């Protein structure tokens, strides 16, 4: 499970890939984020994507801020685990993702994947979502006439472009074996210099379902970030795209790796990706790859993240005051 208390570089888009056991007619709580946002409005949690195995009797539904079934999906009616269903469900205090098998007798090894964004709302966000403003936030809102900008759709926010984007890949041949219970790092540890930050944006992995004709559910892609080294992301490969079933393909030997699973995991110190193998892997052309980008670490980033390790220098403080960066970050204009 993702450690949401470690979210610190807002906004973060966190991928989860799980394998659940569903009991007949008993709701399964896949994720409960009410523990994260203790005060409504402090953080905004948003479901951006989900993918689930199509089963006629299985429902996927979302409860948000006390509203039951804000999203209510019959899994057989949407694209399956090998594709992505985009949505946008916001929550200020609680977000619950649930599965229910209606008279299907229960499901073992049921894969589900979803993307959650966790963000600290700006004043513009609060106005749009009708979250009450503090007196200081009202002052900044009036200063920039934010309601007028929102109503006329003239809010312009600068989009940061990466300095570079890197792809790292690893391939195992049929003669390679990864011992059961072992962990293999994929690529080198990515280390950021003091004036840069990185963002892990995508991970792709070979499908598992069709190999040997049985589900392989104890292999994981794990992401270690900065000093949060205890599996910041822990993704079950069986639930990641592509989910390849033996009935979906004609020639498994020539099946190419599919589109990666997107995310947004920033880091300012270091990051590395690992494959944990719960059972022996000895497969032909097993592949893993990931993509990350490098960005300039600016004054606005340091102000928004407000971390002890990212304090402004005296020169940066002077620039921030002169260019009115403090209030612009709070407003959501930078």
Q: What does this 3D model show about the protein?
A:
It is a single chain. The protein has 334 residues and is mostly beta strands. Helices cover 14% and strands 41% of the residues. It has 6 helices and 16 strands. The strands form 4 sheets. The protein has a 4-stranded antiparallel beta sheet, with no helix packed on it. A 4-stranded antiparallel beta sheet has the order 2-7-4-5, with no helix packed on it. A 4-stranded antiparallel beta sheet has the order 9-16-11-14, with no helix packed on it. Helix 2 (135-144) packs across helix 6 and helix 4 crosses helix 6 (325-331). The two termini are 32 Å apart.
Helix fraction bin: 10-25%
Reported for the largest beta sheet, the result is: 4 strands, antiparallel
Q: For the record, what CATH class of the largest domain applies?
A: Mainly Beta
Helix-strand string = EEEEEEEEHHHEEEEEEEEHHH
The tally of domains stands at 3
Low-confidence stretches: 243-257
Radius of gyration: 22 Å
List keywords for this structure.
four-stranded antiparallel beta sheet, mainly beta, single chain, 6 helices, Jelly Rolls, 334 residues
């Amino acid at each position: 499970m993702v450690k949401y208390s470690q979210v610190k570089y807002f906004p973060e888009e966190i991928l989860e890939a799980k394998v659940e056991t569903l009991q007949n007619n008993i709701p399964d709580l896949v994720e409960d984020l009410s523990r994260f946002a203790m005060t409504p409005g402090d953080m905004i949690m948003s479901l951006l994507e989900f993918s689930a195995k199509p089963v006629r009797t299985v429902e996927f539904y979302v409860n948000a801020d006390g509203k039951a079934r804000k999203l209510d999906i019959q899994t057989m009616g949407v694209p399956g685990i090998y594709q992505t269903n985009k949505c946008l469900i916001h929550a200020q205090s609680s977000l619950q993702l649930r599965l229910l098998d209606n008279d299907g007798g229960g499901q073992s090894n049921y894969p589900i994947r979803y993307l959650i964004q966790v963000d600290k709302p700006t004043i513009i966000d609060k106005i749009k979502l009708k979250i009450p403003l503090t007196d200081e936030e009202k002052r900044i809102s009036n200063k920039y006439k934010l309601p007028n900008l929102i109503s006329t759709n003239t809010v312009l926010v600068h989009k940061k472009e990466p300095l570079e984007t890197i792809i790292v890949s690893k391939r195992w041949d049929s003669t390679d074996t990864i011992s059961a219970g072992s962990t293999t790092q994929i690529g080198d540890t990515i280390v950021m210099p003091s004036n840069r930050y990185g963002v892990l944006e995508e991970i792709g992995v070979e499908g598992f379902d069709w190999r040997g004709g049985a589900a392989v559910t104890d292999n994981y892609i794990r992401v270690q970030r900065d000093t949060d080294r205890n599996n910041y992301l822990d993704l079950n490969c069986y639930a990641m795209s592509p989910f390849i079933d033996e009935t979906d393909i004609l020639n498994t030997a020539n099946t190419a790796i599919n589109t990666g699973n997107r995310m947004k995991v920033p880091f300012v110190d270091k990051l590395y990706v690992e494959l944990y193998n719960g059972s022996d892997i000895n497969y032909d052309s097993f592949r893993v790859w990931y993509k990350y980008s490098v960005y300039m670490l600016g004054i606005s980033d340091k102000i928004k993240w407000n971390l002890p390790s990212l304090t402004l220098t005296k020169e940066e403080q002077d620039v921030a005051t002169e260019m009115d960066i403090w209030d612009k970050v709070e407003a959501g204009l930078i």
